[in-house]
């Protein structure tokens, strides 16, 4: 185990940051990934671990900007939240609220995607990601094509660079939900149309954009709020950290020792000096004064053989009624789903009046619609 100390700033104040990150088991992985990657050290190394869920365990850090570097005829990829500045992120969220309101009103006249097609690559199964993207694209006039795990076998049956160049000749936009983060980078590098990151084992930017939209709807703003994530330091945590490097708020990750988020990603958020960042092993202390308490499964798909061990290690990290009481009466509960009720969260917490899990799930579609509008320059 290696201890890392540093500081981060939040509204011109400095806060100490000290936590422990497991490097003994992962340092060789990062080193090998860097050696085998064709991108620079500023870009994420290849990642090929079979980790999946709404999220997955930590992997390597993202670049500071989109891998293809230049806009594609005015169009842009959406790979990491930190590829964009605060003004752009807030503009996308404002657009999401506007388009959501129009759809909710029953008005279907707004059809910016009319005549456009989207290829959706799924290397892993999904309910929310598929339905939210496909339905959202259809409601705005477009046609989405589902390509499941057996349709392409990207990287096995056909090289990713070839898939990108073929699909971008047929379609106006590509969305991909994949395992290795390098796969999404390669798609973006070789595609001539925008590529949207529907999830990788490193990050899940569309989910966090939906979460931010949900927080704004219920609290009135994202800036200055305290978001406390309780559980594994996985790709959901990485995405929150990348958002915290752009928009100022207080983010706390409470996780068992040995399950902290990627060290480089924490340092990226810390060095940005935008938000207050805390990594702790004490969930009870972490949730005090929280505006949002956030949870996720302890064992993602690809980690199910570790489920029994993780249930032992994660004892004390369940979000139950007692933990929510410590958080306070104004705290909302969020979960990216799917949830294992009775494991990382109790049924009572999910069904409580202050749970906003299902508005959060709905907002995947609205946030993604706005992301695609931005990517296509519409």
UniProtKB/TrEMBL annotation:
<dbReference type="GO" id="GO:0019240">
    <property type="term" value="P:citrulline biosynthetic process"/>
</dbReference>
<dbReference type="Pfam" id="PF00185">
    <property type="entry name" value="OTCace"/>
</dbReference>
<dbReference type="InterPro" id="IPR006130">
    <property type="entry name" value="Asp/Orn_carbamoylTrfase"/>
</dbReference>
<feature type="domain" description="Aspartate/ornithine carbamoyltransferase carbamoyl-P binding">
    <location>
        <begin position="76"/>
        <end position="217"/>
    </location>
</feature>
<dbReference type="GO" id="GO:0016597">
    <property type="term" value="F:amino acid binding"/>
</dbReference>
<keyword id="KW-0808">Transferase</keyword>
<dbReference type="InterPro" id="IPR006131">
    <property type="entry name" value="Asp_carbamoyltransf_Asp/Orn-bd"/>
</dbReference>
<dbReference type="GO" id="GO:0009507">
    <property type="term" value="C:chloroplast"/>
</dbReference>
<comment type="similarity">
    <text>Belongs to the aspartate/ornithine carbamoyltransferase superfamily. OTCase family.</text>
</comment>
<dbReference type="GO" id="GO:0004585">
    <property type="term" value="F:ornithine carbamoyltransferase activity"/>
</dbReference>
<dbReference type="InterPro" id="IPR006132">
    <property type="entry name" value="Asp/Orn_carbamoyltranf_P-bd"/>
</dbReference>
<feature type="domain" description="Aspartate/ornithine carbamoyltransferase Asp/Orn-binding">
    <location>
        <begin position="223"/>
        <end position="374"/>
    </location>
</feature>
<dbReference type="InterPro" id="IPR002292">
    <property type="entry name" value="Orn/put_carbamltrans"/>
</dbReference>
<dbReference type="InterPro" id="IPR024904">
    <property type="entry name" value="OTCase_ArgI"/>
</dbReference>
<dbReference type="GO" id="GO:0042450">
    <property type="term" value="P:L-arginine biosynthetic process via ornithine"/>
</dbReference>
<dbReference type="InterPro" id="IPR036901">
    <property type="entry name" value="Asp/Orn_carbamoylTrfase_sf"/>
</dbReference>
<dbReference type="Pfam" id="PF02729">
    <property type="entry name" value="OTCace_N"/>
</dbReference>
<protein>
    <recommendedName>
        <fullName>ornithine carbamoyltransferase</fullName>
        <ecNumber>2.1.3.3</ecNumber>
    </recommendedName>
</protein>
């Amino acid at each position: 185990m290696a201890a890392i100390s540093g500081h981060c700033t939040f509204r011109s104040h400095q806060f100490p940051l000290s936590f422990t990150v497991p490097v003994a088991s992962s340092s060789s992985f990062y080193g090998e990934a860097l050696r085998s990657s064709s991108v620079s050290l500023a870009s994420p190394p290849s990642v090929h671990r079979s980790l999946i869920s709404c999220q997955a365990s930590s992997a390597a850090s993202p670049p500071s900007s989109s891998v293809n570097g230049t806009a594609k005829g005015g169009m842009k990829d959406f790979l990491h939240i930190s590829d964009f500045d605060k003004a752009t992120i807030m503009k996308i969220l404002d657009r999401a609220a506007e388009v959501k309101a129009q759809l909710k009103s029953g008005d279907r006249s707004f059809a910016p995607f009319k005549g456009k097609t989207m290829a959706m690559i799924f290397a892993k199964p999904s309910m929310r990601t598929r339905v939210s993207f496909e339905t959202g694209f259809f409601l705005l006039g477009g046609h989405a094509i589902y390509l499941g795990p057996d349709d392409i076998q990207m990287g096995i049956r056909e090289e990713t660079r070839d898939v990108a160049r073929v699909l971008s000749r047929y379609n106006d936009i590509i969305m991909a939900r994949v395992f290795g983060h390098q796969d999404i980078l390669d798609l973006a590098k070789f595609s001539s149309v925008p590529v949207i990151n529907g999830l990788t084992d490193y990050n899940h930017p569309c989910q966090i954009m939906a979460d931010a939209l949900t927080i704004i709807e219920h609290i009135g703003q994202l800036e200055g709020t305290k978001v406390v994530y309780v559980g594994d330091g996985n790709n959901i945590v990485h995405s929150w950290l990348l958002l915290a490097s752009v928009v100022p708020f207080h983010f706390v990750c409470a996780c068992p020792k040995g399950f902290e988020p990627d060290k480089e990603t924490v340092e990226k958020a810390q060095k940005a000096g935008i938000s207050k960042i805390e990594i702790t092993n004490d969930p009870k202390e972490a949730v005090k004064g929280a505006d949002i308490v956030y949870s996720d499964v302890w064992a993602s798909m690809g980690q199910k053989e570790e489920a029994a061990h993780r249930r032992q290690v994660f004892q004390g990290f369940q979000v139950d009624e007692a933990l929510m009481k410590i958080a306070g009466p104004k705290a909302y509960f969020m979960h990216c789903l799917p949830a294992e009720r009775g494991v990382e969260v109790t049924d009572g917490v999910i069904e409580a009046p202050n749970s906003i899990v299902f508005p959060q799930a709905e907002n995947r579609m609205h946030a993604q619609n706005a992301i695609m509008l931005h990517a296509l320059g519409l």
